[in-house]
Prior knowledge:
Order of helices and strands: EHEHEHE
Largest sheet: 2 strands, parallel
Shape: globular
Number of strands: 4
Number of helices: 3
Amino acid sequence: MAAEPGDITVFYRVTDTSDAALLDEVERICQEREHGLFVLTGSRPNGPEFMPAQQEGERQQPEYQRLLTIAPYLLESDVYICGPGPWSESVLHALGKLHVAKDHIHLEEFSW
């Protein structure tokens, strides 16, 4: 994918970094190519959400709003999702709440 520095932001969602396959490689590639990288760590809340559970004292926001807070250009972007089915569905649900155009969403599901 041809991109200029700053054109790509990667969100890597894991319970903790010890569970993050290829994280060193993803970090290296993002640094070399000047792409943004957010490693979202923490337990999942009870329910269908994909973002880490909100911390005590954190301003409570709907998940789709939290996503837009950390990715302000999301509505003008193509979104590539790669993950297991239920997790991917929760990302799609949040993108639907934001009215992201379906032709801007690219999905690759996997399972184990």
